[in-house]
Write a sequence for this structure.
């Protein structure tokens, strides 16, 4: 694949640097401001402090920069990802198209795509992940600059390590697998297991299959299926996972995903969904704002969903909801930088 | 290389609310203009530095000649075209066209002050 032109690289690197500054300089200053103001011992006083912070120029800039650098990353008319990938050189599209005939990929052009998936451009991704054949490439390029204090896809590698530490699973389903950034690390760690990634996005799945073709892995399958109604038989898997899927779904669909996870597991099987969970009003406030700024409309409702109750309602037992460190030391109380409150939702289907 | 036809889904400016973060009218667009300026400046600086590195490596850079460079017609046209693109990039935000090419976001934002 030919590299983008130098100006595009310079621009996208600038976006990454700004994101780093935003996370490591601007956010600590904002948090410090909040802690100076919040002397409340009641929720009402905390809310009052948050409202005061929300009216400061510092917060206005914090919010503005989050919104507009993400917009520019995708939609800048000169060097944004949409403009860049629109004019991909010959060979890239062909390579993605060739992945369609991979024996490891099953696409379904007639899959029923939910309305919200068509109508909301999540993460400000133009046309969401189903508009163009290069959407997977755009999404991958964008995802690399979202978590500035981690190595590329470090959270997903660490999640795969967490999976491996539990037990040697034999049959794994990765829901909402995207371009395989979690599916492939799990498959690499469990070569004896059968690992399946499903997603609504055909472009992402083509990229996943093309990426798989560059590995020696033979234990992976990708399929265009809906996590709400996957079509696999009852008890087909001993582990069902997802990463950053639940917060993108309406609450009723989250409950359906949990019920589907339960149905797909054999007795004794485990579910492990990695997502976000704010602890405290301050982080809840920041994520509510992020949801607006980054077009993640269902995130606030997910943040308020009692996941312990929802997992229990789906039939699960041994429910554990724990903070997850996407990089070494990130869950320390004195971690000063912006980070999403990564959380692992884990449970077991009773024997 | 054949350029593919533009993809309407990626280029259409769909109707979405313009989020406003500042109380002062016009401030959001001014601030966006600053972001564009900053990116233009950075890309330009990056290009000049890369060029200097390349020319210096090859022993071709004559700083004095660079200061007195006179473009020919074709070069002047190229510079003018770049200048026009720069101005367009910078000014696009002022009439509110510089929305995300992403689409409508249903809930009304608490930060939408317009």
């Amino acid at each position: 694949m030919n590299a983008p032109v130098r100006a595009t690289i310079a621009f996208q690197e600038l976006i990454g640097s700004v994101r780093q500054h935003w996370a490591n300089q601007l956010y600590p200053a904002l948090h410090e401001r909040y802690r100076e103001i919040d002397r409340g011992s009641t929720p009402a006083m905390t809310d009052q402090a948050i409202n005061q912070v929300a009216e400061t120029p510092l917060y206005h800039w914090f919010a503005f920069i989050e919104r507009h650098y993400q917009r520019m990353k995708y939609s800048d008319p000169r060097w944004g990802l949409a403009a860049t990938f629109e004019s991909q050189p010959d060979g890239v599209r062909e390579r993605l198209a060739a992945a369609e005939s991979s024996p490891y990929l099953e696409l379904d052009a007639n899959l029923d795509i939910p309305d919200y998936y068509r109508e909301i451009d999540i993460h400000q991704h133009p046309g969401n992940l189903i508009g163009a054949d290069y959407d997977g490439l755009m999404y991958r390029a964008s995802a690399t600059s979202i978590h500035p204090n981690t190595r590329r896809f470090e959270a997903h590698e660490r999640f795969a390590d967490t999976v491996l530490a539990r037990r040697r699973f034999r049959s794994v389903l990765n829901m909402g697998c995207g371009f395989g950034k979690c599916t492939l690390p799990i498959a690499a760690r469990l070569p004896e297991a059968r690992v399946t990634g499903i997603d609504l996005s055909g472009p992402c799945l083509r990229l996943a299959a093309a990426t798989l073709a560059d590995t020696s892995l033979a234990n992976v399958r990708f399929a265009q299926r809906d996590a709400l109604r996957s079509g696999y038989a009852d008890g087909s898997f001993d582990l069902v996972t997802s990463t950053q899927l639940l917060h993108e779904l309406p609450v009723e669909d989250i409950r359906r995903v949990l019920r589907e996870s339960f149905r797909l597991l054999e007795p004794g099987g485990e579910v492990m969904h990695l997502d976000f969970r704010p602890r405290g009003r301050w982080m809840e406030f920041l994520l509510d704002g992020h949801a607006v700024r980054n077009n993640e409309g269902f995130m606030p409702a997910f943040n308020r969903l009692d996941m312990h109750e929802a997992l229990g309602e789906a039939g699960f037992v041994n429910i554990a909801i724990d903070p997850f460190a996407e990089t070494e030391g990130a869950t320390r109380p004195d971690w000063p930088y912006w980070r999403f409150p990564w959380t692992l939702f884990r449970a077991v289907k009773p024997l | 290389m054949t350029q593919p036809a533009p993809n309407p889904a990626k280029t259409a400016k769909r109707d979405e609310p313009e989020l406003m973060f500042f109380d002062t009218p016009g401030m959001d667009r001014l601030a966006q203009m600053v972001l564009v300026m900053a990116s233009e400046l950075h890309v330009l600086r990056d290009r000049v530095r890369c060029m200097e590195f390349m020319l210096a490596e090859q022993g071709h850079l004559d700083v004095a000649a660079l200061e007195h460079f006179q473009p020919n017609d074709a070069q002047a046209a190229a510079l003018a075209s770049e200048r026009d693109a720069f101005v367009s990039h910078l000014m696009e935000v002022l009439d509110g066209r510089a929305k995300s090419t992403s689409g409508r976001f249903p809930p009304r934002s608490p930060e939408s002050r317009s």
Summary: Residues 36 and 90 of chain B are 6 Å apart (CA to CA).
